[in-house]
């Protein structure tokens, strides 16, 4: 079985809730702000649903037309789709994946920045993460107001917890950088003027 893209897997999860047509799925994903987890675009979603059908994970269960609007095809998850969804979820939950966040790479190379620039960049990251946490709080307020069971928004509470942990670590680390607790030697940049003159000789 071919591996699924994150968007295809999310679409399979939506079809597990009940038959739907791609535009309806797109509206639902937009309303739920699923863009936090996968890149959601209408054309790509239509393509991924078609891919699910090719793989036998979804099937056409009907078509309908409203007025002069284009005909809409409704899809449903198949038994094979349920199996793939189940096994995929268990695997993703249980097995840590090899991921390569760019921030980890940046931290590994941060000594190549002057201290002041490193601290300033980390401060700006804190502010950006705080805005993301505010957005997570807004989403939590909405879902709690709808009395949705917590199992439907565990991802949001997880994201908020991870954002809080990152913010706390960054604040503590930038404070240690500012007070000299982390020894730092600013990089010596090459003399590009000298290098240029030597190159022209």
Automatic annotation (TrEMBL):
Residue intervals passing through the bilayer: none
Pfam families, per database record: PadR
Entry-linked Gene3D superfamilies: Winged helix-like DNA-binding domain superfamily/Winged helix DNA-binding domain
Transcription regulator PadR N-terminal domain: residues covered: 12-86
Stored InterPro entries: Metal_resp_DNA-bind_regulator, Tscrpt_reg_PadR_N, WH-like_DNA-bd_sf, WH_DNA-bd_sf
Source organism, top-level taxon: Bacteria
Signal peptide: 1-22
Keywords attached to this entry: Signal
Record's protein name: PadR family transcriptional regulator
